[in-house]
Amino acid sequence: MDEVRLVKFVRGLTSLEALTSMKKNTADRNGLTEEIDRAFRDREFELFQEKTADRLQRSLDLLTPLELRIIRGLAALWMTHEKRFPPNRSIQALRNRNGDLIRFAEDVVSSGLESSGYRRLSVAGFDDLVFERVVLDNPQVFSMKARDNARRRLKLLEDSSVERSATNNELPLECDTFSTKDLLEAIGFRKPQPTAWYALRDEEIVFLSWVREADFERGTARILADEGDIRPNFYHWRSQIQRIKAGEYRSAYIVFGYKGLDNANVQRSRELRLYTLKEIQQVGVEVFATIAPVEPLGQHGVDHDVASDGKEEGTERGGRFTTAPVRPEQVAFRRALFERFDGRCALTGCAVAELLDAAHLPGRNWALGHNSANDGILLRADLHRALDTGLIRLDARLRLVWVHSSVTDLYERFRQPGDFDA
Q1: Could you read off the pLDDT of 385-397 as tens digits, one per residue?
Q2: What residue spans carry the region label Disordered (predicted)?
Q3: Whether 379 contacts 359, CB under 8 Å
């Protein structure tokens, strides 16, 4: 189907499910041109407007232009939510006002609450639908108080965004963090589009992921989550995985980062660590891969083969890596502990992901299904070994309360006061 016919077909789709399925199939065939992608987005937004109006029991055809703009703002909030959750609080607030859209917008900008959707709508290109702008663009309808509040709130939000934008254009993004995208660009990798989950360099590809998705101890990582994910980037990355498996890239890497401002992928040092993607396999609805660290020289031109058979692969500098069996429950366990302890060792505060272990607490065993966040603690690797060998002990609150005399010099400074209750 040519581009013109496909765009016309997309505009005729009547459900989000059909639209999602069609977009997935188009992305799988690498057929998402800029025009087609825009058609999917425009039709998706129209369908979200219909869902919003239906939820409010209103007819789009009977709304005034101003009321329609407010409905469009709610639809944009719904559509741009990471998990596609509806704006239930706003919908309930509207119901409490008997569906009065004008009064609702007036009350929103007059409240002391932050406009939580402002940045999301701004990034998605829906700036004109922010309620503060709606109020200011219709001074004849809204009160002076609402206009003054809207002007003040908008200035605060825009000033905040300018500060963030200026910071995003140079390193670091925030205290002790550095933009993964900028660090990749410094070694020649470029994202095909700003929101892409991957970057390209000649015939090489690198995937941007989160630290919590990796199990550095066993050399595995989750590289694709739920098949039900409907975000556009999900399909783009899924198609790239197929290309990697088909051998279309000379080298494939992954880089792990932390979540910074506005979910930006950031590093906690200027040293960027790439990992080679090796054996890729699907486990249920998720996709995992074995990973191997690339020596620093590899970031500047040394090729590393993408392994597909799970055997050892040599590097040009003589290092050898062995793939490990994929253990999804360990990846999930590590991810849960990284979230619980904010990516830091519970005893020392160390935030270097490669030095941290997802440690099971004494008496817990992964083989028995003890793999929840409450079954473990995030520890620096040496402390993990010390815990497993009985050189240190923790209390019920996961505080270090006892240190063996042989390691007093190493760990006594981390011990909390109080008696150890055996």
Answers
A1: 899 888 999 988 8
A2: 302-322
A3: yes
